[in-house]
Amino acid sequence: MKFIIRFLFILLLVAAFVSVQEAEAQLIEQRENPKFKQNPKHTWSWFNRKKYWSIGASINAMNYFGDIVPQPYFTSMDLGYTRPNFAIHAQKRYRPNFSMRYSLSWGRVKGDDTTNIGPNKPRWEHNQFRYIRNLRFRNDILELSAMGVLDLVSNRGTFYQRPKRVVPYLVSGLAIFRHNPKARAPEAFGGGWVALQPLGTEGQGYAEEYGKKYSLWQVAIPMGFGMRYRIGTRWDLAFEISYRKLFTDYIDDVSRKYVDLGIFGDNDLARAMSDRSLEGGRRIDQLGLTFRPNFYTYIGADGRVYRTLEGFGNEQYEDNIRGNYRDKDVLIIAGIHLMYIVPGQVRCPEPFKKRFRRHRL
Fold first, then answer.
1. Is 115 helix (H, G, I), strand (E, B) or coil?
2. Closest by Cα among 255, 267, 263, 257 to 298
3. Which listed residue, 76, 137, 184, 222, has the most CB atoms within 10 A of its CB?
4. Domains annotated on the chain, with CATH
5. What is the model's pTM?
6. CA nearest to 254, candidates 202, 194, 318, 198
7. CA distance 13 to 7
8. CA 359 and chain centroid, separation
9. At 361, is the pLDDT very low, low, confident or very high (cuts 50, 70, 90)?
10. Angstrom distance (rounded) from CA 265 to CA 247
11. Cα–Cα distance, 109 to 83 (Å, whole number)
């Protein structure tokens, strides 16, 4: 994952350097042009004609990588859990190869331990712990973003003169989003979808040592690559894939260790959603495991007796982990963008004006 971030960053720097060199060469070329010497302001008016707005929308596929995935490595996303993402955009071109895009999007991600992992699936022996964990979630994400769009092929004219070929581009910027992880409650609690953050499933908000509940508002850094093609005078079609660097590990509500079930007091729903390994009388001996975890009984912070598995709430075991806090969650969005250039923004260029005058005469 770090390699991908570094690669995109280096690619962005190289593209920026190339674009600056191209812009300087273009300016030199214009200054040597006789028309420029006759009218020095021609260059600046030429740039002003490029500052136009576009509006559009995109339909995307959205995926997640985190603690509830088939395998503990970046390429292990389960395509069966791909969910839709929809966005609307407003974009303004400021320079021949640079625009700013402002977007509002909604999408959903989802994961499930017992569907992703099983006795007949790859690396079963390695993934049995997560199969026993038995966690699942879905999360609806509303995002507002501002991203720079850097074309790797410069647009040397106004919007109707943009290249009629595939234009590769890079995108990066800043986004804020609101998320709200949910999961279905056990049948004993009605089986409906419940929000997980208010429950503090990893002890958040119940004791100082577990910290505060995580925020539902978060910041992300989008980075991506796209390919755009002009399909009409005012229409562009593009394919784009982007990666969201997140600063939270709670898109799936899973990050740290199991906690003493006694800290939840009289909140039985929080207790049930915290440790689901034995939910509904789940029989460990019938799960096809190659090992048999031992049961563990302890007296919780509330004085009640709790029964769980070794490593699922008993801190004397090193593998007492519910999730991996060292790696933040990741979102990946890929889809088709359709953009329309808003009319009435660009004044008619000089050559067009001259032709129009001759036609009238």
1. helix
2. 263
3. 137
4. 50-180+216-256+321-360 (2.40.160.20)
5. 0.80
6. 202
7. 10
8. 54
9. very low
10. 31
11. 6
